[in-house]
Amino acid sequence: MGIKVLLIGLDGATFSVLDPMVARGVMPFLGRFLAEGVRANLRTIVPPLTPPAWTSLATGRSPGHHGVFDFFRMDSPESRHIRFSSSRDISVPTIWDAATAAGMRVTALNYCLTFPAPKVSGFVVPGWVPWRQLRLACHPAGLFDRLKALPGFEPRELAMDVKLEERATEGCANAEEYAPWIEFHTRRERHWFDVFRHLTETAPSELTAVVFDGVDKLQHLCWRFVAAEPGTEWEHEWERRAHELCLEYFRHLDGILERTCSIAGSEAAVVIASDHGFGPTRQVFHVNAWLEKHGYLAWSTEQLAKQDEGSALLGVGQVARHTFLMDWDRTRAFATTPTSNGIFIARAKGDGSGVPEAEYHAFRQRLVRELLAEKDPATGDSLVIRIDTREEAFPGPFSSLAPDLTLSLADGGLVSILPSDRLVSPRPAVAGSHRPLGVFLAKGPGLRRGADAGELSILDVAPTILHGLGLPVPEDLEGRVPVEMFEAEALKRKPVRAGAPSGSVEAPASSPAGPAPGFGADEEEAVMKRLQELGYVE
Ligand SMILES: [Zn+2]
Question: Measured between alpha carbons, how far is 54 from 325 in angstroms, rounded to an integer?
Fold first, then answer.
């Protein structure tokens, strides 16, 4: 038995970068793939953020149903404590679960929130895991030692390493040090390819999936080098070199995609998808400063003074500290994490603080009105272009854990949650930030050639993969199989089958319940370093 469905995740891929790469001959394989397959823009969930987006892709459910909203998670709606999200927060079955339940093998490599690993029949090497935990994180037990025996296997480059991530962050502050950072990501994709090849040659899985995430990382830090038009005049030699190395990364990625598809074979259905798109960001909106200016948030002078004395916090504490800096007697609305563009409203607790239940909707509407009316002091343009309420963006059983409001900024970037004298600051240089439209490409038996399916939802990917595996599509999935992608003959031979609702996971074998896995201080630091490197955490 070989691979039936190959799912290649390209974190953060966008056609605004890939199409020009194809046009200028950097990605010839992708060009052929597009000519022989189907393409579509892939609309992601709100917010366009890696952990909830990959979770929606792998479950066909929106965050209010699967329970993941952010890199971080509060234990309860009232909690001021924040921890990292993990696979245990995913409360509905994934495609890994569905394939396993149908008796198929699964290989899942480098997917966000697959730690602790689902207990599939097959292999899991989770993404976003510090390298010291990789042995523990790999499934099945003993897999890490097998991988270690591979020539060139380098766990520090494959997974996350505090030292490497730290060097990367510092390096890119010095202009000339972009080069090693870009080259590091080129090597990293090669490491993941080597793991994919070894496992597929050893024991292929019907559902095989691998994420290459250098696209996201390069675009965050090197957007202007990645998206530069041909013929751009660079002021400095190191800029020209950074641009060349970015092209080299995409050329190398194209080769890896070609070899990955070739190993999967011509009988496999291949889906290439991203979790969100990308675009430039030029400024930072200080959302807590805005709330403070409008009288909705107050900082605790006592806590700020302590902060100045230098209580350096590492790990999640770096993010959580902002909530401890607030004066909760006088704060009615606040942003707790820099990653989700979410505003929470403090509910009344009977001590005079917070917003009483009866006033909640009017209060929330006032915030929406005032935020949408706020203009950039420099240009007079709107700062916030869209605001989703919790009910709009996150219907479902986990709605109460979601932010009350989720902002989409005109600039496309993420908010800052730090105290600030200014509402808006320019970024030192143009950076990259997530956008709602990612990519979907598919090729294989029965799929139309050279077709453009317009726009699909990220929620359509899980149904499409289940159909590709020959499995029924549970009727509670929120997406659909885009039948317009298939030849009519193929659909007659293999019609889309509806299945019983998959429900929530009380206790399927692959999703252990219980508290989130404890990252030690080192592991938390590694994750925070990466978030810092990508510009999420200040
Ligand atoms: Zn992402």
Answer: 32
